[in-house]
Amino acid sequence: MPIPSKLFELLRPRWLSLSIIGLCLGYAITVLTLAPTWSLPLLALVWLRLGALFRWGEPDSPAHSYVPRRWCWSLLPIALWGLYIYLTESFGIVDLAAVFFHLQAGMADHGGVSRIGAAFMYSLAMAALLGSVIWLVRHDRRWRRVEPFLALVLLASNPLLYGVGQRGAAIVTKPGAWLERQYVEPILLEAPEDPPNLLFLYLESIERTYADRERFGEAYADLDVIGEHGLVYEGVRQIDNTGWTMAGMIASQCGTPLMPAGLLHDRQFSPLEKVVPGVDCLGDLLSEQGYELSYLGGASTAFAGKGLFYKGHGFDTVLGREDLQPLLDDPEYVNNWGLYDDSLYDFTLQELRRLNETGRPWGLINLTIAGHAPRGYPAQACIDRQGEFDGVDILYSVECSAWLAREFLERADAEGLLDNTIVVVASDHLTMRVSAWEQLIQGERDNTFMLLGPGIPVGRESREASMVDVFPTVLEAMGFTIDWHRAGLGVSLLSGEPTLLEEHGKQYVNDRMREEIALQERLWEGLAPPRQETEEEDTPQEQIVEAPDDTTGERPADVQ
Which pLDDT does position 97 carry in this prediction? Predict the structure, then answer.
């Protein structure tokens, strides 16, 4: 069958190059905006129409027809934009801090193998795009003239380079220490006579936003049932440096965002040996009170420094994929990340039985995997209950995660394993890009955070808070008395004290994180070069009053 003449024309180098550029440009627009995927070919056609109108790729004279060795300055900027678009398509919101942290903390045994195929296709597309740009620049004098300016625009507008430049400037200039002055050392002033146990369930990416039944149906319903027996917090936002698993766990257990070691690490290309060694966290405090502490997660503890964090902060038992998979009845019943949640909860139930037999107060932290972006990992127990999984719908996985959490708590309670126990159910962070992404970003999003157990009131409370406020809230829920209801940057939501977000707003707190390194140095004390303190910084007054450069009009923090 002969190729139609119009289609044959598209196979010529000029139109092939313009078509590739148009398709890549259209794809970038659909990823970076809310433009629907079906608009991609329309955007490419608009580009081709402009190419025909302005005769792009056609020489204006034989003398200017082709420059074979013309260097294209825009190749690197385009490649960097390609990387940013890939990260955006993969995660929804690009967090440079997460990239830096995982590079240093380690990415062994990760579950992202499903992205290998996508990365390969992205690489092919980028190669085709760069080749097309080279062809266009070498064959069209007008593009040769404008291309260096295009390179500068692409560099200046890339959020990746902007973020790196901002953090680099902060490290060089060391401006201000507002966040550091808000930090309150976590201290237990008084302990309850009968210390309660603590069960902390992190539900991977199961944010409270899913509770909106108009957008997400019954996916979150089982968590709503759990919440009917305890205290549910609404408005727990995600501030910078708390948007991935380790960052969410550190924020909620240490009261501080995870500001990566980054350039502060004195051995840039060697793995971290400790994770946030400069601050005391939940495990440190409970261990000093005689608690037996355990962590169980379906993924490897080697990934992102999870094992380093828990072993370095007071935990006696730290179990992940490498420890639990050999104990499965069917060791092949695992996913890319590790154990399915039905298996993990079975092991968690066994650990609860063991802890209850020790005669000591205990704390157990559990991290699930069912809700992990982009499509989740629903367990076989959910498939038996919910029917076949289409491999795409994240709401199926959200429902699975919620149901398994409820079913686990009911089993544990029926065995009497949760007597005198404070139960915390929380998301580790907001979800990354998933099938319901456009519905999720329609409005404000917040994390799941609920408390259950003796002395916990039943109801709902709306606060402008963040995951750093979970830390002091859990301590007070357990009956501990802490200094001014504060720990780290967090404020107990059980108190009437205002949170940082209520006093200063989310944007202001995020801005300070991007512009300061004093708190970052505290987190990584011992890994970073020692900071030179001035006499003024050593005085008690400096710990209370902001320096002139930090003055913003807000009243000083009540406690330093």
Answer: 63
Please, where are the H alpha helices in 289-424? Answer: 306-312, 321-324, 341-356, 380-386, 394-414
DSSP character at residue 113: G
Residue recorded with tokens 């404070």: 422
Reported confidence tier of residue 37, pLDDT bands at 50, 70, 90: confident
C-alpha distance from residue 466 to each of 252, 256, 387, 499, 558 (Å): 9, 10, 36, 8, 19
Does residue 430 sit in helix, strand or coil? coil
**CB-based contacts of 217, cutoff 8 Å, min separation 6:** 395
Neighbours of 66 (CB within 10 A): 11
Cα 558 from Cα 552, distance rounded (Å): 16
The CA angle 464-428-408, to the nearest 5 degrees, is 115
- 485: amino acid identity, one letter: H
Distance CA 183, CA 278 (A): 12
Torsion of Cα atoms, 100 then 102 then 106 then 109, to 10°: -150
Work out the pLDDT band at 534, boundaries 50, 70, 90: very low
Closest CA relative to residue 345, chosen from 413, 411, 408, 264: 408
Neighbours of 59 (CB within 10 A): 14
Single-letter amino acid code for the residue at 220 = Y
- DSSP state letters, 165-195: HHHHHHHHH----HHHHH-B---EEE--SSP
Higher pLDDT, 41 or 502: 502
Asked if the bond preceding 195 is cis, omega within 30° of 0, the reply is no
Higher-pLDDT residue of 552, 151: 151
Task: List 559's β-bridge partners, or say none.
Answer: none
SS3 97: helix
- Answer yes or no: are the C-beta atoms of 135 and 475 closer than 8 Å: no
Angle subtended at Cα 218 by Cα 214 and Cα 223, rounded to the nearest 5 degrees: 115
The helix/strand count (H/E) of the chain reads as 24, 12
Instruction: With beta carbons less than 8 A apart as the criterion, state whether 111 and 335 touch.
Output: yes
Distance CA 540, CA 537 (A): 8
Cβ atoms of 13 and 31 within 8 Å: the answer is no
Instruction: Please say whether the beta carbons of 523 and 276 come within 8 A.
Output: yes
pLDDT class of 425 with cuts at 50, 70, 90:
very high
- Residue-wise pLDDT for 231-264, tens only, equals 999 999 999 999 999 999 999 999 999 988 765 4
Structure tokens at 468: 């750093």
Give the mean pLDDT of 149-178: 70
Who contacts 365 (Cβ-Cβ below 8 Å, separation ≥6)?
A: 200, 202, 249, 293, 294, 295, 296, 310, 315
Domains of the chain: 11-172 (no CATH), 192-262+278-514 (3.40.720.10)
pLDDT at residue 515, rounded to an integer: 85
Contact by Cβ (8 Å): 266, 174: no
* CB of 337 closer than 8 Å to CB of 298: yes
